[in-house]
Design brief:
With about 70 residues, this protein is of the alpha+beta class. The chain has 3 helices and 3 strands.
């Protein structure tokens, strides 16, 4: 039986750190940036970690162990 494929969209959106946490990008930083404050845009540019409630779904899509 062949190996299961990694979800291609998930592989582009998430990155696993050395400690096993999963980094993600924050939303709302693509367009209509003129009305958003500089402080807000800087905060949105920083990476965030996937919440523990979503971790099992993300790890399944990336095909990594629990």
């Amino acid at each position: 039986m062949p190996k299961m494929k990694t979800n291609s969209s998930a592989k582009k959106r998430f990155k696993v750190t050395g400690t096993g946490k999963v980094k993600r990008r924050k939303a709302f930083l693509n367009h209509i940036l003129t009305k958003k404050a500089t402080k807000r845009k800087k905060a949105l540019a920083k990476p965030a970690m996937v919440h523990e409630t979503d971790m099992s779904n993300v790890k399944f899509m990336l095909r990594i162990g629990k």
